[in-house]
Amino acid sequence: MLDAVIVGAGFAGMYMLHKLRALGLTARVFEAGTGVGGTWYWNRYPGARCDVESMDYSYSFSDELQQEWRWTERYAAQPEILKYANHVADRFDLRRDIQLETRVTRAVFDETTSRWDVETDRGDRVSARFCVMATGCLSDAQVPDFEGLDSFEGTWYHTGRWPHQGVDFTGRRVGVIGTGSSAIQSIPIIAKQARHLYVFQRTPNYSMPAQNAPLDAEYERRVKAAYADFRRQARESRVGFVTERSGDSALAVPAAEREREYEKRWSRGGLGFSAAYADLLMSKDANDTAADFFRAKIRAIVRDPAVADLLCPTSYPLGTKRLCVDTGYYATFNLDNVTLVDVRKQPIEVITPKGVRTGGVEYAVDDLVFATGFDAMTGALLNIDIRGRGGRRLDAEWAGGPRTYLGLTVEGFPNLFLITGPGSPSVLSNMIVSIEQHVDWIADCMSHLRARDLATIEATLEAQEAWVQHVNEVGHMTLYPLAPSWYMGANIPGKPRVFMPYIGGVGVYRQKCDEVAAKDYEGFALR
Ligand SMILES: Cc1cc2nc3c(=O)[nH]c(=O)nc-3n(C[C@H](O)[C@H](O)[C@H](O)COP(=O)(O)OP(=O)(O)OC[C@H]3O[C@@H](n4cnc5c(N)ncnc54)[C@H](O)[C@@H]3O)c2cc1C
Fold this sequence. Notes:
Layout: E1 2-7, H1 11-22, E2 27-30, H2 39-42, H3 63-68, H4 78-91, E3 98-99, E4 104-110, E5 115-120, E6 125-133, E7 155-158, E8 173-177, H5 181-193, E9 196-201, E10 207-209, H6 217-225, H7 227-236, H8 255-268, H9 284-301, H10 305-311, E11 324-326, H11 329-332, E12 338-342, E13 348-351, E14 355-358, E15 361-364, E16 367-370, H12 379-382, E17 385-387, H13 394-397, E18 416-418, H14 431-452, E19 457-459, H15 461-476, H16 506-518, E20 524-526
Parallel strand pairs: 1-2, 1-6, 2-3, 4-17, 6-18, 7-16, 8-9, 8-16, 9-12, 10-11
Antiparallel strand pairs: 4-5, 5-6, 13-14, 14-15, 19-20
Helix pairs in contact: 1-14, 9-10, 14-16
Flavin-adenine dinucleotide (FAD) is lined by residues 7-13, 30-33, 38-39, 41, 43, 48, 50-52, 57, 103-104, 134-139, 182, 380, 383-384, 419-420, 430-431, 435.
């Protein structure tokens, strides 16, 4: 008889396990992969790295860990982050409660026992008081349903399911489908290996130079000397890391000054660009000034004006699809062995045995790379048959889009917790900060139930409705809903178009969650 089942052994599941053990609770983690690390276990494509700086994108719960661990680069690459995840698993002796190569298929709340019955694809059946979904916002990799893919005679890959032994594209003709974050990271590297690289682009993205470099030892020393304060500021910030944030309107400053500011941020690199002015994500006119700056940069880097034109995003405001961070992405299109193919005007018709046909032209390739992303935020959850009170099914409850209270819980599903669920800042933040906040809140909640001898906690319908409305209202005050992004579910045919994450800010959100707990779990029914 377990206290808790945790689904997923990425950063969320691992910390949840550690935290529950500290409370003296028994827990088992089920993980579909053959190892821990989640995102960093699966996404082994060339160039995969974090785009939140490593000194920020790491756990803060153990001071020994954060003092001892040494990142080698400003933005660590996937192998180093995976090594870190494994180090954490060993250091905190997590593995003995993690069952790998096991996918949870079903979780049913039994009203007679007030427990969750959880089933796996390996035939396990376990009963637990709590069920914690640490299934990941970006873990359900999507390959579009292209006609003819079965007939393709070459090899195809998805960036989010990359072979562990790596792939050598030397001398090969390669097609990359998609131009989001993963594509933008991998294309410069694949281009260096491939005989020819075709990039099939539907929507161009805004990408910032990473200006990645070996981690500056002096910076590391300074951060480590004041890590507690550095982390506190991150927790109270808007996005979970501290960045120079202006309170001014982009339209209130002279054009030349604005240009200098954008230039400064461009040469600094990374995700801080959108914080240059307070209204970049609120006002289309303000946003246009930044988008124009980006387009001018692209035109200055890319020599062929027609290719540069295609690479310039024009159909949505900057930052409303996830801003990408790259190393040499735009310049890659100056190489003779790289061809950009516009599949906006002429969509991919069919995958043929020899390659990709679009606009009546067949592009012959040996390998195809799908950098086509994920069924974000809800995909991994809804792959599990989750049933709450009275057999209510989560997929039916969410048919019109996800509905949660605080992105942590769902009405009708007692003692079920979502880590970085829809309706929380999750993908709009440094996710490790958001993960730690959720795990801490959930653990406190379980302690509270134990101290009061309570069996269940469940969101009330009123509280959930009010939260969903708040998340929507705040989202619609911004420019985000203007972009057909994966935040909106727009990359998945038939998925409801709902702006899923909470944009109120990491610090504000944390305060709201803390207030709910302080008011004896306001908005929840405790039984
Ligand atoms: C390429 C890439 C780069 C990223 N870079 C950043 C970044 O720089 N900064 C940032 O903040 N975030 C980044 N992210 C987001 C990243 O997903 C989070 O930062 C974080 O790693 C999520 O941890 P998690 O434990 O919540 O989920 P995940 O790491 O996705 O782990 C979830 C785990 O659950 C398992 N699982 C799912 N369903 C089941 C099931 N039914 N049964 C058993 N196991 C299951 C999966 O196999 C997976 O291992 C990036 C994401 C990607 C894809």
